[in-house]
Design goal:
The protein is of the alpha/beta class. The protein has helices spanning 37-43, 71-84, 97-108, 130-147, 149-157, 160-168, 170-181, 185-196, 206-209, 223-231; strands at 3-5, 11-17, 22-26, 48-52, 90-95, 113-119, 216-219. Helix 4 (130-147) packs across helix 5 (149-157), helix 4 (130-147) packs antiparallel against helix 8 and helix 6 packs across helix 7. The longest helix is centred in the middle third of the chain and has 18 residues, at 130-147.
Length: 232
């Protein structure tokens, strides 16, 4: 299986298809490289498409050190993908957790991004919800550790933000839930604590977002997210 090395030596699994201008897909917390299969099939006809598993998501490495997981690590792992595959620039497409990573990549490495797609990026950003968000992510991390991945995945997949997927596309939801159950409970807990819980609020990053020069498509249904995007 193809792997590449991140800056700290962690091995990241990736898949690619197609040729031409590169697109790098960055998955959400409850997904992995397989979440982008339909996009890989479609855009792989005209582009070089790369999807990879974040650290903590087998067959990528699951480092035991909690400090190996952070928003900065998630951002720099995108750069590691580009460097390992000798890509000077790429379109970077991220969803939710991956959207946060793509956004940070955009204002940290502006010359490496041909464009950015930031989808579903905003949960937990509201200043008055930060404490609640930290409590929710810590509780989720403990559930992964205590209940194991199989049981936790089924509960997570039935959360209010996911159950509409089940209502609209039962087969697609079942595939999603089954894939989530294959993740590492240890990796999920460390990612929750290191990346999700500690990531900065978008409201603290407004000035940095204003410096992004790459074309950027922001996709969100959150009212707070839309208001923030207008400010940017």
């Amino acid at each position: 299986m193809p792997h590449l090395s991140a800056d700290d030596g962690a091995k990241l699994y990736y898949e690619e298809v197609g040729a031409g201008i590169p697109i790098v897909f960055v998955h959400e917390f409850a997904g992995d490289h397989r979440s982008w299969e339909l996009q890989m099939r479609h855009f792989g006809r005209r582009y070089r498409c790369i999807a990879y598993n974040a650290r903590g998501y087998p067959p990528s490495d699951v480092p035991d050190d909690a400090e190996s997981y952070s928003q900065d690590r998630a951002r720099d792992d995108i750069r590691a993908v580009l460097d390992a595959l000798s890509l000077e620039t790429a379109h970077v497409v991220g969803l939710s957790m991956g959207g946060f990573a793509a956004l940070h990549f955009g204002f940290t490495y502006p010359r490496r991004a041909r464009s950015l797609v930031v989808g579903g990026c905003g949960y937990g950003a509201s200043p008055d919800k930060r404490a609640q968000f930290a409590e929710e992510t810590e509780a989720a991390a403990r559930r992964f550790e205590d209940a194991g991945m199989s049981q936790s995945a089924e509960t997570y997949a039935l959360a209010p933000s996911r159950v509409q997927f089940q209502n609209k596309d039962p087969r697609g939801w079942r595939e999603f839930a089954d894939q989530l159950a294959q993740h590492s409970a240890r990796g999920a807990a460390l990612t929750m604590r290191g990346v999700q819980k500690r990531r900065p609020s978008l409201f603290d990053l407004v000035d940095r977002m204003k410096t992004i020069t790459a074309p950027m498509l922001v996709m969100t249904g959150m009212r707070t997210g839309l208001a923030l995007n207008r400010r940017c």
